[in-house]
Amino acid sequence: MRGDPDTIRLTVDGSKCDGHGICALIIPERISLDAWGFADVESEPIEDPRTLARAKRAVNACPVRALTLAGPVAVRLGRGAAALPKERV
Amino acid sequence: MSAVEIVDKPVLRDRDTSMVLDETPLFGVAGSPGTRLLAGPAQSMGAESLDSHVRRLGAVDTIRTTPQALRDTVRASGLMGRGGAGFPTATKFDLAASAPGTPIVVVNASEGEPASAKDRTLLELRPHLILDGADLAAAAVGANEIVIYLHRAHLRSNAALEQALAERRGAKMDTAHIRLIDAPARYVAGETSAVVSYLGGHGAIPRRGAKPAAQVGIANRPTVVNNAETLAHLALVARFGASWFAQVGTPEAPGSTLITLAGSVVSPGQVVEVLGPVTIGQVLERVGGLDAVPRAILLGGYAGTWIDGETAWRTPLDRHGLKAHGMSLGCGLVAVLHDEVCGLAETARLVAWLAGESSGQCGSCVFGLPVLSGFIDDIIAGRSRRGDVRRLREHAASVRGRGACGHPTGVVTLVESALETFTPELARHLRGEVCESHDGLDHFPLPLSPKPRP
Ligand SMILES: Cc1cc2nc3c(=O)[nH]c(=O)nc-3n(C[C@H](O)[C@H](O)[C@H](O)COP(=O)(O)O)c2cc1C
Ligand code: SF4
Ligand code: SF4
Fold first, then answer.
1. What's the pLDDT at B440?
2. According to CATH, what is the number of the domain B23-245?
3. Cα–Cα distance for residue pair B22/B422, rounded to 1 Å
4. Per-chain mean pLDDT for chain B
5. Mean pLDDT over residues B392-410, rounded?
6. Most buried in the list A63, B275, B388, B453, measured by CB within 10 Å?
7. Is residue A30 included in any domain, yes or no?
8. In terms of residue numbers, what domain contains A56?
9. Was domain B257-336 assigned CATH 3.10.450.50?
10. Interval between CA B14 and ligand 1 midpoint (Å)
11. Is the Cβ of A51 closer than 8 Å to some Cβ of chain B?
């Protein structure tokens, strides 16, 4: 519900994250792992296109799909799935 | 906001009823002049009957308005949720009204906050106000179903509710279909997404959906979850209008607000309606029966903010002003620490209990809160040194904002405000001192003994 719909933010659903840790290898500038290996995501708006590209890779790489890119972007999921719904609210 | 000038007018005191004999009362209990939600019969009279309610306010089904006009009135009133987060009620209504599917309205009367009593008291004394509000919310969004989410254990308020529903059926007033559902006795069970999950046939655990419950809720239908007090305000806003509503309160946080006094006061669980700029000290003195400034108070709920007594005494009870100072009125709890109880020991009890109330889904909450609890237990056992406090602070900061709901952040707020408020106590414990037994003293109430940490 938060945020300006024109900004793109990376968020994690803490109830889904299983602490696989792959995401933090892909986008270390936005995701660190806490003491138990769960993703701690810096959810400031993403402006840099390279950061955005890495964020998309991280979303696709998460085995439990705990990561979301919210904003005016469509992210193609891995494994042949359809585009994520746009999350604007 | 701290600059609010409190005009201390002479007010006669009678702890139970009709205590405010002032022309512009700043607060009052049930039956006090000037009150809004609590206007009507005195507290000792119990539930207000439908007859008396209709004589005083008129029947809800005689209010002539359209759904759009009603939503516009709510928008203009600035009504914000009284469940804790202060979310604009009109925004929720608009989302639900425009989303696909027939909406459901949920009256959140579960009041999982252990020391809070405002929702059950309002239900017990003014059931028809809450039921009117539920009917109006249903009308505003086009819902055909109302769920009242409550606790079986709240016997008095449930009896009042059932009596009130029977009166309305007798008067052929019932509009939408109403169901009463018993909420699981868990702290997080009252959080909106947990309510929706439970009413959808799943566990009462918070969920992070792509869309808010107001758009996609129970069985994918738009679901308006509102706190019971919020809906009672709606019942008055619909009758008297937006500008009447905003005649009390502040421009940023209009309307009156219910608070619960708890802990070391003459009558824990006493509910007070705040009508104007009043300090915490004034309410504690006049209704709480305090004759001295306490060591500290806990504001907003167990996952709330500790404030040292001197500061609290002159702090205005104003949702917006408190927020500007990094405090939250939350569910309106004002709990006074017993003078002989160490605030850190009380915090340790609450944190242990809150850690056990995690819904067990998010790593940062499941693992992070017990560690927080362990740090505080070590402090009060005299086992900690400065470095441990630094590690505690770092750990607390790493838990803030994590998890799928606000639970861990609330617990961090409690812990951080305790470290800030109880500095002399902390220094004593860091020298290895241990508190004397607090057995037999007035602790804050907890529904169960703290669960063992995993
Ligand atoms: C852990 C947690 C527990 C909550 N428990 C309750 C509760 O027992 N009753 C309640 O009305 N709101 C509770 N809330 C707040 C609700 O999520 C929600 O804000 C409220 O019911 C919505 O109504 P309002 O907009 O009228 O405030 C809780 C929130 C959290 C994070
Ligand atoms: S890859 Fe997914 S499951 Fe693994 S740590 Fe990152 S968000 Fe969590
Ligand atoms: S943060 Fe804690 S209480 Fe909230 S959903 Fe996650 S595990 Fe449950």
1. 65
2. 3.40.50.11540
3. 37
4. 90
5. 95
6. B275
7. yes
8. 9-83
9. no
10. 32
11. no
